[in-house]
Amino acid sequence: MRWERLFDDLEAQLTRDESRGQEAEIADRTRRERASVDLHSRLLGSLGTRRVSVRVPGRVLVGELVDVGPDWLLLETRPDRPELVALGSVRAVSGLGTGTHAPSVVAKRFALGAALRAVSRDRATVEVLDLDGRLTTGTIDVVAADHLELAEHASDAPRRAENVVGMQLIPFAALVTVRRL
């Protein structure tokens, strides 16, 4: 009887040790997997999420996550009024799902400059928020490699020479949001 109990105890201990080893291996694999997920992949995995909060300097934007690029996101804060948010200005994001999605080759190439050029092509009046909290209204005339050129004018006036009150060169690094008016 004693031998049987001893063997049973040894077998139970071995089973516990194997189980702990498997749990530790699973936990380690999970940590390694999570360490390889970047913010862009998390954002892509949450496309269409209706109530995402994005904290940027001076404000919190809340809306539906509509699109994501490698250095920007598009958040619809009002119906049919999405805001282009420079990812470099984002301080925190909440309300995302747990899913991830690997970015496509096209998504990786469609950077902030390309998104701003699309806005510029439309000649739409925009409101630009910079890192200092300054709002500037006007039309994007030029999108260069690392900055945009904004013709300042009133939001209710078209972009014409007589309506332009100034020109601003705004580095991409200073951008927080760009919103069509």
Can you tell me about this structure?
- The protein is α+β, with helices and mostly antiparallel strands.
- It has two domains: 36 residues; 142 residues, SH3 type barrels (Roll).
- Helices cover 31% and strands 35% of the residues.
- It has four helices and ten strands; from the N terminus they run H-H-E-E-E-E-E-H-H-E-E-E-E-E.
- The chain has a ten-stranded antiparallel beta sheet.
- The longest helix has 34 residues.
- The model has no long low-confidence stretch (mean pLDDT 89).
- This is Fis family transcriptional regulator.
Protein traits:
181 residues; alpha+beta; SH3 type barrels; 2 domains; ten-stranded antiparallel β-sheet
CATH architecture of the largest domain: Roll
Q: What is the number of helical segments per DSSP (H or I, 4+ residues)?
A: 4
Spatial order of the strands in the main sheet?
A: 5-1-2-3-4-10-6-7-8-9
Approximate shape = rod-shaped
Protein name: Fis family transcriptional regulator
Organism: Intrasporangium oryzae NRRL B-24470
SSE arrangement:
Blueprint: H1 2-35, H2 39-45, E1 52-56, E2 59-68, E3 72-78, E4 81-86, E5 92-94, H3 105-109, H4 112-122, E6 125-130, E7 135-143, E8 147-152, E9 166-171, E10 175-180
Q: Brief overview, please?
A:
With 181 residues, the protein is an alpha+beta fold. It contains four helices and ten strands, in the order ααβββββααβββββ.
